[in-house]
Amino acid sequence: MFVLMMPTIESICEDYGLDYYDDSNTRELLEQQGLEAYQIEVNDGESFEIPQCFTGRIVQDEQNYYKKVLVDEGMDYYEREVIQDDLPSGLYQLDKDEITVKQIYQTDVF
Q1: In the prediction, which pLDDT does 69 show?
Q2: pLDDT of res. 108
Q3: How many secondary structure helices (H) and strands (E) does the chain include?
Q4: Residues 33, 63 contacting (CB under 8 angstroms)
Q5: Tens-of-pLDDT digits for all 110 residues of the chain?
Q6: DSSP code of 87?
Q7: Alpha carbons 55 and 36: distance in angstroms, whole number
Q8: Pairwise CA distance, residues 39 & 25, whole Å
Q9: If you placed Cys at 87, which of 28, 56, 80, 92 could pair as Cys (CB 3.0 to 4.6 Å)?
Q10: What is the CA radius of gyration of the chain?
Q11: Is the separation of the CB atoms in 86 and 97 below 8 Å?
Q12: With b meaning 16 or more CB within 10 Å and e meaning fewer, what string describes 58-75?
């Protein structure tokens, strides 16, 4: 599996002094996001990290990957859902088609 790491639009705005709410910056922001993106390969059984101020997008062919999230720690109960959106910054582990969320990093919200 490959994960594309992209800086968040918010972090780019902060780094370059751009107004997050100014629609005229959209093209410049997307271009900068593409320039700063990088891809990592994650193999079965490996942990991977999406750094703070980045989001991760799974680059896949036709295979679905599932996010496994701990719902009840006392009962060791997890829920599984198809990943359709970007993954926020955090620590994850890949096991076959399941991505277990180990820790989500808190980032500043604008």
Answers
A1: 79
A2: 53
A3: 2, 8
A4: no
A5: 999 999 998 888 888 888 888 878 788 888 888 888 999 999 999 999 999 999 999 997 778 899 987 888 888 888 888 898 899 999 999 999 999 888 888 765 54
A6: B
A7: 12
A8: 25
A9: 56
A10: 16
A11: no
A12: beeeeeebbbbeeeeeee
Q: Which amino acid is at 2?
A: F
**Which residues touch 13 (CB under 8 Å, ≥6 apart)?**
19, 20, 25, 29, 110
Alpha helices for the chain (secondary structure H): 9-16, 26-36
pLDDT of residue 87: 93
Residue 34 contacts residue 40 (beta carbons within 8 Å): no
Q: What is the pLDDT of residue 110?
A: 45
Q: Report the 10 Å Cβ neighbour count for 55.
A: 22
Q: Which amino acid is at 101?
A: V
Nearest 5°: the CA angle 106, 101, 56 is 70
- Residue 52 is predicted with a pLDDT of 92
